[in-house]
């Protein structure tokens, strides 16, 4: 699609307005999707890094007036240049757009906008003037025409949204700049309330989130990314420490009943936000314990159980009923749920371990324990194989790391991890890998199991083969290739495959009419979370395959909104916020190469940790929350990178 | 940043405007510049607040960086070169000030702040003649959070100092920024949370917040400003009186840099000055003979007083003195000298009930009363016990918040009620009245168990017995998880600050157990102990008159035929009937006071006293520091002069000149502060909780707003304090439900000695079995519930 007429994105000007056929260039640094929603064309985009014009006749004057007013509406009112200056800029643009403008107004706008861009505290003012200044610079004729009364404007509709690099990549769309700023202003309660607008598990995600936000943090362009995750934890813990009443209560309302299958992050999130909307959700959970993978897949030293239980208790206080020990498919069927409830949400996660595909895997040897089951046993207070002392875990993800670290804590003294690539390609959180190294896990990189060695029905070792890295595969990581004849044996009592999980949908009977994908996940619409069966919705790992917690909470909440629409008789569809999220995702909000004019050198704060020798012996939480002053200091590093994107539709 | 921080970290050297400046880590460019004597303009910045970076006036250029940045939020980094004045910066600053004028009315002639307004200064400095654009601004803000302050929305520049001060300094959330963009304004976010401390008013750089109190407005150039000490509680704030014509105080100001309160004050200090020139003040000595009374002149009053006192003394009769702990050391000293000229005397003060007991306990322990508040800043754990810092020593709560804000100190609050630090407490131990002793023993036990008892403690007298008693006490597991958490926090702390108030001193067992705990924790060496001081010169009274007798004792003394009440009205704090009966038995009562009271009405001779604004002298604050009172307004000769002449008349030395007095006072105070290493004392058996009586299951806890009857008597309405502080009776929701009462209903409470009916307010967070009574102006009926001075009274409660 080579249809961009003009772009000033990131200062790289591509101007095809006078270019003939075949001479048109296209911007290399940005792609503007053709449609905002099906059937609605994006004529132009005004945003933090400039203007992207698709239709030559788009009304640049009208767009500027709309955008300037958006800046004023979104100005937080704190810093003077943005608060007052953008009011005047908006007024002047509106004056010109309405045909009452004068030539000196253009000059005044240029001066003011320059001052606002240069002098504002945050990126609303700093970036908010960028497309306006570009418009004055590259489209002077449009303004001259408007002032002399010759403006011809096609009917257009403007929609805008606020984003920030961090929040643009957050699967739960947390309003990160606001909650961080509130911490910086010592408004811990307000900060937690901001977080809870999006997730009901602040203490959990504040501990275990994989934090895409932090790798999209503009502060990293100055020195180091903000400790966004740790800050989230600090306010969640503050509420507990200071004995603050969370003030969560059921909304009361329609009382219409929704069944939720699975008390994992997706189910809890869906239920919580349904309850806040006045519905009466009931969660059916197979285990005697809530949290799903967050509870049984994440060990206590990273996520203490009482934190998770408390958050589930808040969900309950919002008006959610949780029935434990009820296995859907056994005690109750989806069909019965559909009969007794007005809608059903399936959020069963992906809890089955993937097979490694090596010889001996299906033999049921003592000492062969899939990773998720290993963690589940430990979480229930059991050592799955007390006689075994030496452990080999296979895999490179967080479950693998949790398995090795938990092993020390149940008294295993020789703990090994086998991974077929190198540390660079490991999908596990680098912080977790580092902590495991400190605890003296033995890492065996570039090798892969080929055969399980057993004697008398017990594992005694695993045969591995050395690997080397070849060409990149579909995931972009270099593909590991076995080195012929390099087999060797690691002696071990316990072998734990932790190379990934899959979805167990055996509880669904064919007659339920819920279609599955070819990857054996539930086939739910990516926008509406609706399954092929009317009134049945699904989100989380069971539709995507194993993914991160913060995605499950995000999709669980979004599914709640679709269920709400469905129960109100509306057609569930993507919200404008979701459309903007997709649009901003395509345009890309964070620019790693941006140079920021700021004296840096302020180190990111780190939570205090127990020393490795002390922590590896118990399930006591490894890290402690920031103290108040540390949290406030860390939050003060945030650059508040809010920016506004506006589309002209028509 | 404190000096010590600067010395421990690596020093940073940067260049600002060509000048090399060396500063500590964590310093901002603005702080470094100011330390180096380079002025960078600011508007939203304030030293008491976290950096904000909103006004953008402090923009500076740094070599190698394309864009200017704000000096208040940018750290000073090694080797950078900063420019604070350039054409570009001047243009930026001028533009900002011009923008402010777009939305600011030019009503300077009628603005209170005219002449000391930051915006006025900036407009003048940048030579701005007019705003070149107008944008209409709404003027629709709700009335302010407190009636004592008025908000002028159009004058507001939205620097945010007010609402940040509310949160950061005062720990409240009464006001906030509302609206976005140009529509932004300040709004009350929680009126009930406002304590009218006026911190917002104090920090407003323009005339957007003005005092809504003094009818007499003054402009800065018309008034003189007198730096003096606050007359109310014993924290020891220093303040500045704004005086017109040398006669009338028009407002009270804080001043940055004044120790110990900086520019902060509480509602009493800032708004409690209307009594000074109130028409109800006593102006003339009055002699009462039978039911007749007549005014007499000052000399006659001195003669009458001297004759009567001498006569009683000669007859071998006792003379009791009840002296206010708010008067100056010089007055106290003169009184002690007067007493020294007479035979059988007893010296009492209302300071007895708290500071008197505390001083005696410290003396018994052989430890000195503490000096200074600064020790709190270095503590990583602060325990606040039985001290309601919202009501008294409010600035101490600010100090604690500061320690939390600056170094993340943990806080344990020991109080049955929501006392000031409860909101920021990591553990709030809602200990029932009388239960403190067991709790402190439990906490002490946890220190021992954690191996964190101070080495020094082991060498102290009584350690072995104390240790033994703790081991016995801590054998049972902790009662609940809050106590367990408190034990953990104590075990982790390296320096502990202990602040305690009348909730502790009201019960001997509590006080002893607390002091034992302090010694075990190695205090005061490894932290600090700060007893609150309820009245401006309680420490001075305890030292100069001490050991103090209790006012009840002196009143009841059978052989006490004469009474000299110096700015004291026992009806304000004792059972009225008891006082009335006692006064009736006296042969001669001499009362010296500012206002007529029930006591002065009973006195044979009444002499007018001088208010704090009318006299010179010193008081000793809660931190042991003497602070000077300065005469700000011309007034009556008053109390000090009467005492001087009376002493002379009784044959004592005719003191003249404050210097000599000062020396004498200092010598007396030195005695108080010297201390030894301390000793453990076996805790007295804890007093039975007053709730023990089954027919009176409720504990009425008095939260006494009383500081001085100057603020409760005739002049009350003239001060702001009277407008915002209210008598109130509160009960928890569970008890309310059980009794069938709702807010506004009348509650009848009956004790062994009386009954009271009052409207009740149901308050969330109050536990079962306690009734909280804010005692302000309506005192006598509640005081009648107890035969003697009490903090907690056992009562029955029913719906009236």
Explained architecture:
The complex is a heterodimer of chains A (650) and B (800). By secondary structure, chain A is of the alpha/beta class. Chain A has three domains: 6-166 and 642-649, de novo design (two linked rop proteins) (Up-down Bundle), CATH 1.20.1440.230; 257-350 and 503-573, FAD/NAD(P)-binding domain; 355-500, FAD/NAD(P)-binding domain, CATH 3.50.50.60. Chain A is built from 23 helices and 22 strands. In chain A, strands 1, 2, 3, 4, 5, 6 and 22 form a seven-stranded antiparallel sheet that branches. In chain A, strands 9-8-7-10-21 form a five-stranded parallel sheet, sandwiched between helices. A four-stranded parallel sheet of chain A has the order 14-13-12-19, with helices on one face. The longest helix of chain A has 19 residues, at 549-567. The two termini of chain A are 18 Å apart. The mean pLDDT of chain A is 94. Chain B has 26 helices and 33 strands.
Chain-wise SSE layout:
The complex is a heterodimer of chains A (650) and B (800).
Chain A: E1 6-7, E2 14-15, E3 35-37, E4 40-47, E5 50-53, H1 60-74, H2 80-97, H3 103-119, H4 123-128, H5 130-138, H6 140-147, E6 157-163, H7 165-168, H8 176-184, H9 188-196, H10 202-208, H11 228-241, E7 257-261, H12 265-276, E8 280-285, H13 293-296, H14 305-317, E9 321-324, H15 334-340, E10 343-346, E11 352-353, H16 371-379, E12 390-394, H17 398-409, E13 414-418, H18 430-438, E14 442-444, E15 447-455, E16 458-472, E17 478-482, E18 488-491, E19 494-497, E20 501-502, E21 536-538, H19 541-544, H20 549-567, H21 576-587, H22 612-615, H23 628-635, E22 643-649
Parallel strand pairs in A: 7-8, 7-10, 8-9, 10-21, 12-13, 12-19, 13-14
Antiparallel strand pairs in A: 1-2, 1-5, 3-4, 4-5, 4-22, 6-22, 11-20, 15-16, 16-17, 16-18
Helix pairs in contact in A: 1-2, 2-3, 3-5, 8-9, 8-11, 8-23, 9-11, 10-11, 11-23, 12-20, 16-17
Chain B: H1 3-8, E1 12-16, E2 19-23, H2 29-35, E3 59-62, E4 69-70, E5 81-83, H3 87-102, H4 118-125, E6 149-151, H5 161-168, E7 175-178, E8 185-188, H6 199-203, E9 209-211, E10 223-229, E11 238-244, E12 248-253, H7 267-271, E13 286-289, E14 292-295, H8 298-314, E15 318-323, H9 329-340, E16 345-349, H10 355-365, E17 381-385, H11 394-407, E18 410-414, E19 427-429, H12 436-449, H13 455-458, H14 463-473, H15 481-492, E20 496-500, H16 502-505, H17 508-520, E21 527-531, H18 538-544, H19 551-556, E22 560-566, H20 576-584, E23 588-593, H21 598-602, E24 605-608, E25 617-620, E26 626-629, H22 638-649, H23 658-673, E27 698-704, H24 720-724, E28 728-731, H25 733-739, E29 746-750, E30 755-759, E31 761-762, E32 770-775, H26 780-783, E33 792-799
Parallel strand pairs in B: 1-5, 15-16, 15-22, 17-18, 17-20, 18-19, 20-21, 22-23, 23-24, 27-32, 28-31
Antiparallel strand pairs in B: 1-2, 3-4, 3-5, 6-9, 7-8, 10-11, 11-12, 13-14, 13-24, 25-26, 27-33, 28-32, 29-30, 29-33
Helix pairs in contact in B: 8-22, 9-22, 12-14, 12-15, 12-17
């Amino acid at each position: 699609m080579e249809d961009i007429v003009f772009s000033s994105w990131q200062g790289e000007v591509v101007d095809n307005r006078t270019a003939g056929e075949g001479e048109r260039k296209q911007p290399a640094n940005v792609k503007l999707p053709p449609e905002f929603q099906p059937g609605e064309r994006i004529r132009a985009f005004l945003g933090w890094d400039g203007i992207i014009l698709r239709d030559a006749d788009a009304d640049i004057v009208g767009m500027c007036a709309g955008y300037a007013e958006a800046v004023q509406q979104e100005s937080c009112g704190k810093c003077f240049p943005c608060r007052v200056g953008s009011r005047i800029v908006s007024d002047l643009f509106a004056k010109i757009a309405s045909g009452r403008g004068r030539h000196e107004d253009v000059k005044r706008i240029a001066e003011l906008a320059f001052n606002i861009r240069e002098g504002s505290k945050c990126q609303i003012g700093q970036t908010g003037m960028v497309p306006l200044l570009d418009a004055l610079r590259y489209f002077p004729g449009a303004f001259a025409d408007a002032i002399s009364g010759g403006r011809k404007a096609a009917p257009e509709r403007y929609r805008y949204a606020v984003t920030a690099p961090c929040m643009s990549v957050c699967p739960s769309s947390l309003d990160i700049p606001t909650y961080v700023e509130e911490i910086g202003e010592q408004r811990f309660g307000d900060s937690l309330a901001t977080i809870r607008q999006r997730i009901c598990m602040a203490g959990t995600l504040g501990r275990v989130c994989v934090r895409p936000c932090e790798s999209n943090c503009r502060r990293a362009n100055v020195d180091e990314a903000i400790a966004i995750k740790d800050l989230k934890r600090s306010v969640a813990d503050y509420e507990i420490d200071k004995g603050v009443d969370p003030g969560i209560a059921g909304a009361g309302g329609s009382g219409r009943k929704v069944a939720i299958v699975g008390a994992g992050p997706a189910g809890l999130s869906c239920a919580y936000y349904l309850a806040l909307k006045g519905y009466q959700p009931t969660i059916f959970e197979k285990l005697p314990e809530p949290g799903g993978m967050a509870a049984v897949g994440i060990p206590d030293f990273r996520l203490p159980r009482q934190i998770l239980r408390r958050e589930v208790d808040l969900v309950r206080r919002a008006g959610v009923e949780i029935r434990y020990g009820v296995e859907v498919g056994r005690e109750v069927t989806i069909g019965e749920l559909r009969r007794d409830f007005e809608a059903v949400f399936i959020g069963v996660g992906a809890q089955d371990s993937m097979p490694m595909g090596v010889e001996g895997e299906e033999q049921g040897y003592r000492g062969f324990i899939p990773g998720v089951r290993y963690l589940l046993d430990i979480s229930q207070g059991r050592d799955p194989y007390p006689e075994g002392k030496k452990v080999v875990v296979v895999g490179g993800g967080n479950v693998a790391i949790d398995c090795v670290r938990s092993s020390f804590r149940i008294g295993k003294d020789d703990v090994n991890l086998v991974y077929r690539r190198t540390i660079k390609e490991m999908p596990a959180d680098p912080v977790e890998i580092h902590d495991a190294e400190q605890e003296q896990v033995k890492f065996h990189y570039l090798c892969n199991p080929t055969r399980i060695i057993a004697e008398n029905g017990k594992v005694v070792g695993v045969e591995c083969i050395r690997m080397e890295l070849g060409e990149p595969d579909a995931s972009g990581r270099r593909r590991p290739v076995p080195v012929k004849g390099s087999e060797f044996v690691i002696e071990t009592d316990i072998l734990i495959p932790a190379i990934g999980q899959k979805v167990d949908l055996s509880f669904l009977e064919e007659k339920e009419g819920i279609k599955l994908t070819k990857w054996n996940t539930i086939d739910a619409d990516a926008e509406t979370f609706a399954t092929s069966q009317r009134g049945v919705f699904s989100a989380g790992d069971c539709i995507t395959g194993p993914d991160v917690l913060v995605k499950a909470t995000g999709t669980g909440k979004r599914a709640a909104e679709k269920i709400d629409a469905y129960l109100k008789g509306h057609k569930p569809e993507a919200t404008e916020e979701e459309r903007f999220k997709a649009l901003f995702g395509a345009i890309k909000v964070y620019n790693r190469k941006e140079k920021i004019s700021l004296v840096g050198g302020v180190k990111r704060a780190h939570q205090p940790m127990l020393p490795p020798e002390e922590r590896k012996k118990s399930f006591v939480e490894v890290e402690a929350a920031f103290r108040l002053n540390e949290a406030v200091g860390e939050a003060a590093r945030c650059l508040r990178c809010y920016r506004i994107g506006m589309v002209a539709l028509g | 940043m404190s000096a010590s921080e600067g010395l421990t970290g690596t020093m940073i050297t940067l260049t600002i405007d060509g000048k090399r400046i060396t500063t500590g880590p964590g310093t901002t460019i603005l702080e470094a510049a100011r330390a180096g004597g380079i002025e960078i303009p600011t508007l939203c910045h304030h030293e008491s607040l976290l950096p904000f970076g909103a006004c953008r006036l402090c923009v500076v250029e740094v070599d190698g960086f394309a864009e200017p940045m704000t000096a208040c939020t940018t750290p000073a980094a090694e080797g950078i070169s900063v420019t604070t004045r350039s054409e570009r910066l001047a243009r930026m600053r001028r533009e900002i000030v011009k923008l402010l004028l777009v939305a600011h009315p030019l009503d300077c002639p009628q603005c209170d702040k005219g002449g000391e307004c930051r915006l006025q200064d900036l407009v003048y400095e940048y030579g701005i003649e007019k705003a070149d654009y107008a944008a209409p601004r709404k003027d629709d803000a709700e009335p302010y959070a407190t009636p004592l302050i008025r908000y002028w929305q159009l004058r507001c520049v939205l620097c945010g100092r007010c609402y940040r001060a509310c949160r950061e300094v005062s720990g409240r959330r009464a006001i906030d920024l509302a609206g976005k963009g140009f529509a932004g304004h300040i709004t009350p976010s929680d009126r009930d949370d406002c304590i009218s401390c006026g911190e917002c008013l104090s920090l407003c750089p323009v005339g957007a917040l003005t005092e809504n109190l003094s009818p007499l407005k003054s402009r800065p150039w018309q008034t003189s400003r007198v730096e003096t000490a606050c007359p109310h509680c014993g924290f020891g704030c220093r303040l500045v009186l704004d005086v017109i014509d040398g006669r009338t105080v028009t407002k009270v100001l804080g001043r940055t840099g004044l120790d110990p309160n900086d520019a902060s004050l509480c509602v009493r200090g800032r708004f409690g000055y209307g009594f000074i020139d109130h028409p109800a003040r006593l102006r003339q000595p009055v002699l009462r003979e039978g039911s007749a009374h007549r005014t007499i002149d000052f000399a006659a009053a001195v003669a009458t007083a001297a004759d009567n006192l001498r006569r009683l003394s000669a007859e071998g009769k006792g003379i009791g003195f009840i002296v206010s702990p708010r008067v100056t050391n010089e007055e106290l000293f003169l009184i002690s000298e007067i007493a020294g000229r007479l035979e059988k005397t007893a010296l009492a003060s209302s300071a007895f009930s708290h500071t008197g007991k505390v001083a005696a306990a410290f003396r018994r322990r052989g430890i000195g009363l503490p000096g200074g508040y600064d020790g709190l800043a270095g503590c990583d754990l602060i325990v606040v016990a039985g001290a309601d810092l919202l009501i008294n020593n409010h600035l101490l709560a600010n100090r604690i918040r500061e320690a939390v804000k600056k170094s993340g100190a943990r806080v344990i609050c020991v109080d049955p009620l929501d006392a000031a630090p409860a909101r920021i407490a990591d553990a709030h131990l809602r200990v029932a009245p009388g239960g403190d002793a067991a709790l402190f023993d439990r906490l002490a036990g946890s220190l021992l168990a954690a191996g964190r008892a101070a080495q020094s403690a082991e060498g102290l007298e009584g350690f072995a017995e104390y240790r033994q008693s703790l081991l016995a006490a801590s054998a049972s597991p902790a009662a609940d998880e809050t106590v367990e958490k408190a034990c953990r926090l104590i075990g982790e702390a390296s320096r502990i600050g202990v602040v305690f108030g009348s909730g502790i001193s009201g019960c001997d067992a509590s006080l002893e157990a607390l002091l034992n705990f302090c010694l075990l924790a190695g205090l005061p060496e490894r932290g600090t102990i700060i007893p609150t001081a309820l009245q401006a010169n309680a420490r001075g009274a305890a030292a100069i008159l001490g050991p103090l007798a209790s006012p009840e004792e002196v009143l009841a003394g059978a052989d006490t035929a004469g009474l000299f009440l110096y700015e004291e009205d026992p009806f304000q704090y004792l059972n009225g009937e008891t006082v009335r009966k006692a006064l009736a038995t006296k042969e001669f009562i001499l009362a010296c006071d500012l206002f007529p009271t029930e006591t002065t009405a009973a006195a044979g001779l009444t002499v007018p006293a001088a208010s704090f604004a009318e006299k010179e002298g010193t008081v000793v604050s809660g931190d042991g520091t003497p602070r000077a009172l300065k005469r700000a307004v011309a007034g009556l000769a008053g109390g000090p002069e009467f005492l001087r002449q009376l002493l002379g008349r009784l044959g004592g030395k005719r003191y003249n000149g404050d210097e000599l007095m000062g020396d004498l006072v200092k010598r007396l105070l030195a005695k108080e502060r010297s201390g030894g290493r301390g000793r453990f004392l076996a805790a007295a058996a804890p007093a039975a909780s007053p709730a023990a009586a089954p027919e009176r299951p409720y504990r009425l806890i008095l939260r006494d707003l009383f500081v001085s009857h100057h603020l409760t008597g005739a002049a009350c309405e003239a001060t702001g304090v009277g407008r915002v502080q209210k008598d109130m009776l509160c009960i928890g929701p569970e008890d309310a439900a059980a009794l069938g009462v709702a807010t506004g209903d009348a509650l009848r409470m009956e004790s062994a000695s009386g009954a009271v009916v009052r409207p009740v307010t149901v308050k969330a967070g109050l536990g079962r079995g306690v009734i909280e009574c804010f005692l302000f102006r309506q005192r006598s009926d509640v005081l009648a519930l107890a035969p003697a001075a009490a903090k907690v009274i056992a009562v029955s409660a029913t719906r009236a």
